[in-house]
Amino acid sequence: MENSIEIPKEYLETVKNIKTLKKVLWINSHKKNFSEISDALEIKEEEIKDAEERLKRFAPYLIKAFPETKSTNGIIESPLIEIPKMKSRAEEDIKEKIYGKLYIKCDNQLPIAGSIKARGGIYEVLKRAEDLALKNGLIKKDDDYSKFYSDEFKNFFSDYTIQVGSTGNLGLSIGIMSAQLGFKVKVHMSADAKQWKKELLRSKGVNVVEYSSDYSKAVEEGRKLSNEDPKSMFIDDENSKDLFLGYAVGAFRLREQLKKMNIPVDRDHPLFVYLPCGVGGGPGGIAYGLKLIYKDNAHLFFAEPTHSPAMLLGLITGLHNQISVKDFGLDNKTEADGLAVGRPSGLVGKIMDPILDGEFTVEDNQLYRFLAALAEEEKIYLEPSALAGFPGPALISKEYGEEYLKNSTHICWATGGSLVPDNIMKGYYEKGKLLNNRRK
Ligand SMILES: *Cc1c(COP(=O)(O)O)cnc(C)c1O
Fold first, then answer.
1. 283 lines ligand 1 (CB under 6 A)
2. Alpha-carbon distance values, 245 to 8, 18, 152, 211, 236 (Å)
3. Is residue 416 lining ligand 1, measured as CB closer than 6 Å?
4. Does residue 417 line the site of ligand 1, with CB under 6 A?
5. 248 pLDDT band (50/70/90 cuts)?
6. What is the CATH number of domain 2-43+69-112+242-439?
7. What is the pTM of this model?
């Protein structure tokens, strides 16, 4: 396969480095100015607004079903925090200065699922539930949706099954949400999925099917089994527009946060956002929304493990979901379970091609080093995947220079962590601390 893949000449060196597991920074030469692409963008702001409205309709239900959402009135959202001490640590680690201010978007604290999947996964389950309820005359759009929290609705949904393939967190978000609504749920977990994630799901009555193969296979099997059952719905992380829309809502929520915090985004104050990327839906949706809002003043980067740079290879070759990291001799083995995806979403790759500024790859050891640093400096505890964006601000500062970046805002998107059991988190921290000490 590999020999037949054509690599653009300008990226030959990058691909060579990817194949030998070197860290790379890739700047996307396909990126266009917003004015050149805006007419061709197929997903319109109205659709994202529609998704946001749907989440608002469900807010009264979420307050009842998940009381931890009461403090935010049933809206699933996370804080944005400036982390100046972590900025110094990131500079030290990468050995480059960071120009501009550094913030963290704490999706690790998102209620219900403890990860970025609380945006897309939960949204899609709610959308399916609403569609079914509307179609069967159980509800009207202007009703009080706390009605979903009832035996009547649970009985109704118990006739249906929701299935999903996952490396862990998507299964958690979809499993928890679907089970709460009353659906039968089957989660097809890839070999990367952590044991505690499987156990947590089983404790909620979710049927967890384990695979010894990777994520793509778990999705394929789940999709096939679901298609055989007319009362089963498959949530397709590789192809779902609804997931994408759920994630994109996050961009509009971030705009409100930035406004409230008086953080400007304009020509003189560019915004740089660093998003850990697995199959692509989460970072893709958020990046897309930010591009609609901030146009050329938003610079969007994805981060992937050196062992699983699926989206990056898809973008470089233009082959998207037709290639896998295995075609390049990579093993797709990483401690960053949320990013252990060998074949990217074709839907997302094609959308991102003219939008994304670039990508970089990270080593697992770097994830642990940043994990320990963030815990020490800011008392924020993330799972390894969620730290992938943290090398970004220093790498990009070197690439773009002080003149353009001096008033910039960098946001590292922290994509998960609050559900990690304490003993496992302690192990992560100790490992990172050891790695940091070794470099002193
Ligand atoms: C799923 C996940 C991501 C990436 O999202 P994709 O939609 O798979 O690209 C990043 N971080 C964590 C912790 C995740 O669980």
1. yes
2. 32, 31, 29, 29, 13
3. yes
4. no
5. very high
6. 3.40.50.1100
7. 0.97
